[in-house]
Amino acid sequence: MSTAKRGSAVTMHEVAARAGVSIKTVSNVVNGYQYIRPATKERVEAAIADLGYQVNLSARNLRRGRTGIIGLAVPELSLPYFAELADSVIRAADARGLTVLIEQTGSVRERELDVLSGQRRHLTDGLIFSPLELGPQDAEALHVDYPMVLLGERIFGGPADHVTMNNVEAARAATQHLLDLGRRRIAVIGAHEGETVGSAALRVQGYRQALEEAGLPVDPALIGEAGLWHRATGAETMERLLDSGVEIDAVFGLNDALALGALHVLHARRIDVPGQIAVIGFDDIEETAYSSPTLTTVAPGREQIATTAVDLLLARIEELEPGKPFAQVITDFEIVGRESTLGEQAPAV
Amino acid sequence: MSTAKRGSAVTMHEVAARAGVSIKTVSNVVNGYQYIRPATKERVEAAIADLGYQVNLSARNLRRGRTGIIGLAVPELSLPYFAELADSVIRAADARGLTVLIEQTGSVRERELDVLSGQRRHLTDGLIFSPLELGPQDAEALHVDYPMVLLGERIFGGPADHVTMNNVEAARAATQHLLDLGRRRIAVIGAHEGETVGSAALRVQGYRQALEEAGLPVDPALIGEAGLWHRATGAETMERLLDSGVEIDAVFGLNDALALGALHVLHARRIDVPGQIAVIGFDDIEETAYSSPTLTTVAPGREQIATTAVDLLLARIEELEPGKPFAQVITDFEIVGRESTLGEQAPAV
């Protein structure tokens, strides 16, 4: 039975102490240096095995070459948008000879900060990072000494290349789609109260703009909060809005999972979609083309986001243009009209 | 502009030639050996940068310690089952201080073989592998010199720990669920003609057993082929079965994506589910609790699969019980009854 500790708490110093050799000798063994007496080498290897010492691939070493691995940090793979994005990034990376190390942050700020500073960075040539929780107070943490591309709005004027979509414009277009169909009481699902940056705030802003341009009031009773953007929270918020008795003829789910949760509740309550309430989502995950009814949504150009991010990162890794200013690439979006707003007239998938 | 080649084709020999030093000197620089003249070191580092040399973390070096990273190879993250499984594996690994390197094989045999022998293995302490395409002829490739846990049926008597579910039993129970509801013309979607091992063959076998035990004939016209187990192929197969004119009162999708594709077609053709045709899937992906109607399915114990696989792998990595015979762990399953078979009587989600 090994006395190994879990994690990376064991230091080279402890290995040296146990083996009765200098740290330099441990380093030589770990680095595969040839001129070490076999007996010494064996003692060090036994100490490493006993203690469960983890090789510390120091940044110093790896900066001299490349591992061919890039990191991708996303909130959760169980959210289809991020699973499909990861799929696209892996394919784009693969086509360029790169492997992808995926990390999940679970939308927790501390874990997002860990991603930036964590030991895993020593194993990767660069990072594609989709932060959800970092705020302006974390801008300093984004000053990193490795190539990084951020996905999402450039909300901190951050020191990195960004790939994003125009959330305000896209949300305005989604709302306009509902207005064009004659809807006037459009509920929102997924707002984050008090948030001023981030996707929720920007999408609500686009919604407000569309209503204001149409000369319609913004009714706070129609704006449904939902912290997490999951199917379950979408369903809960839809229930709450319906139970409040507010008049609703359309729903804008700020992502597809929220909209699909809302559809589920409308179906359960026998409310006709789109007859009584039209529904639009955001992301164009594959599921939206198969739900009943199929879901109208905003396609954010996932393939374009993935290939652009990988290409930007690779250019930084290879230092193709040293000192090039950080870029912000804004990808295209389009409204994909389906049954949940168009009903029978919707084109077949 | 760097002359870097993409990929890892650059050898240490080329770096040495360009820098005008010996291979041993390049090795010393890469490994961070201290006693190198600064001018020499600079020449080598310049050559590494110019050529885009990738550090080759040889298995020899890493076998002496651990990286804290495990590999997870799955067919596709865009299939929700594998995205949700990856999520569970990442959480289980994270709780044990491990990071997960995800690789996609795209269900291509050559890529599955690459996973086993690829250079990425040098970066990981072990591998959790869900092969779909490897057959008995590939059994030799499974004899690897690193810790590995296989997900899926132990179809080759393979030399590794296995975590699997009883596909035959689970498919028999799914079919029995439909028989208990009085269905007699049960179509299958997702069969693989000519296959004798693998999930498709085993699930069709369970279907046949249930019919035979009920004294019902197996009608080949009811067995729908679908190579890939996607929503799109499920929809196509459902269309084909309906167009064939064969009498159908239930559908067993061999995974949820296939069943959801079938539901989509039944909805489009205004066929009542479960009134006219009951539908059951397999996997219990989250989407099945939100589709309209909600989808009855087989829950394969995803969390149990993930935690068991990580624990088995960790035991091998830490050599807790050296020489322990390879285990096959069979996880529990259950039928989750929802609207697509039970209709109005289905319990709320």
Description of the molecule:
Two copies of one chain form a homodimer. The first copy, chain A, is an alpha/beta fold and about 350 residues long. The first copy, chain A, folds into three domains: about 10-55, lambda repressor-like DNA-binding domains (434 Repressor (Amino-terminal Domain), Orthogonal Bundle); about 70-165 and about 300-335, Rossmann fold (3-Layer(aba) Sandwich); about 165-300 and about 335-345, 3-Layer(aba) Sandwich (Rossmann fold). In chain A, about 40% of the residues lie in helices and about 15% in strands. Chain A has twelve helices and twelve strands. In chain A, the strands form three sheets. A six-stranded parallel sheet of chain A has the order 2-1-3-4-5-11, with helices on both faces. The first copy, chain A, has a four-stranded parallel sheet with strand order 7-6-8-9, sandwiched between helices. In chain A, β8 (about 250-255), α10 and β9 (about 280) form a beta-alpha-beta unit. In chain A, α1 crosses α2 (about 25-30). Chain A is elongated, with a radius of gyration of 25 Å. Chain A starts with 11 loop residues before the first helix and ends in a 7-residue tail after the last helix. Mean pLDDT of chain A is about 85; it is low at about 1-10 and about 55-65. Chains A, B: InterPro entries: HTH_LacI, LacI/GalR-like_sensor, Lambda_DNA-bd_dom_sf, Peripla_BP_I. Chains A, B: GO terms for molecular function: DNA-binding transcription factor activity; transcription cis-regulatory region binding. Chains A, B: It comes from Cellulomonas terrae.
